Amino acid sequence: MKTSNIIAIILLLTVSILPTFVSAEALFIDTPFQEMEFDQNRPLPKVWTVCYPSCDDENKIDVNLMNKGENFFSIEQLQFIEEDFFEAKTIDNTENVELLFQLKNGLTHPVTRLSYRISKSSHKLELKISSSKPITIKIRANKMLLPEDIVGLGGLYNGTSLISFSPKGIEEMKHKTIQNHSEKLWHGARSRFWSFLISPGETIQSYSIQEIDPNSNAFALASNSESGEYHFILYLGPIERSALMRVSSQLKHLLYTALWDWLRWICFGFQMILSWVFTWVGNLGISIILLALIIKILLYPLSNVAERWQQEVNAIQAWLQPRLKKIKTNYTGEEAHQRTLALYQEKGISPMFTVKSLAGLLIQIPIFIAVFDMLGESIMLKGQGFLWINDLSRPDQWMNLPFVIPYFGGTFNLLPLLMTLITALSALNFQDKHLQGDLLKQQQIKLYLMALAFFILFYTFPAGMVLYWTASNSLQLIKALVVKHKT
Fold this sequence. Notes:
Low-confidence stretches: 1-24
Number of strands: 20
Strand content: 25-35%
Strand order of the largest sheet: 6-7-8-9-18-15-14-11-12
Structural class: alpha+beta
Number of helices: 11
Shape: elongated
Mean pLDDT: 80
CATH topology of the largest domain: Beta-galactosidase, Chain A, domain 5
CATH class of the largest domain: Mainly Beta
Oligomer: single chain
Helix content: 25-40%
Number of domains: 2
Distance between the termini: 107 Å
């Protein structure tokens, strides 16, 4: 037999057996916010990609989920289905793209129809299923939402958790079954910047959350519908206010969950300011520095009150110190105590007068908490660089160390050191007309200790947060230098 004939036979045999081994033709769905890939006859996503701010943005941030073996999203009733049971059809509408899977004629299966309606204007996806049996959807969040890996105190931002909305707010899922509420709520998982949530639609009479496993962040949503029609709404996207609100106003509660409502609104206000400045400036690092300046200006009335109260306390301390020292030198016991009380009465003050300075600090703490929560949870910082900083949502990692230091990690972060030096310079140049000698030194020592404490606390914090505090302290240093020059 000629060589050419042998080759022809081999090619024919290869072509005849290829359909058995080659997977079905892939289907791709592209929208501005989501990209999905399906097998032609398999009604479950094979690849699911979501983007922020959009998939067309050259600086986009995305999450690419591979659903090999349905390891993050599966429907129990389709577990053993054959690949050629369904035929697919794509319907492109103005507002969405719909991918419809229909059971082939002549075949029998509880699930006869399944469709994905993917929004073109948001991260919303609607899943509709026609089934003669109850539907159970299984989610395994550890396979899709990867946690952060920040060391030290910055590790507060690590982790993925299961969450469930309830009439009382957002709660973590525990080792128990969650029965449905009269109001259809959201259940799912969240990491620092991303969330995957599912909510039963109106066609479902009852549902429950089962098989909750916080260790692997897995759960199952078991649902029942008398009509045989099942409707679910899914959100896979960023934890960002506008993206969440486009799907459901309920989802905005994912932001700043640990704060009181009035503090959350302050966070939203700061987020709006930062977004506006970023739109104007185009550089997030500079925007954070300008945010520090704007907040300084907005807080001037509060900080002015706090400074005035502190000066009043300093004036009282300056008046009391030499007199108390004299009493301590010349008297002891009850007589010393009585003379000290008489001294306070003469000045018309309480022994607790120093609380006033603490109150001045306390009125500014909510602002401090709000701005740091906003920067810590803002996906805007993800992947944004500034100067030597590659990613403002992580520690600045100026250089790698040849060893790992417990709590501090294996990198040298330059920004916290600059922040500490600026704070120390502010302490060195601190002036108060009421404080002299030992009292002034004591106040400066307190400021030095505070600078050291913030260095330890902030060393592994995201660079965007440390940049804000560095900029704020720089403004305080400028003010101290101006006051010292005038003095």
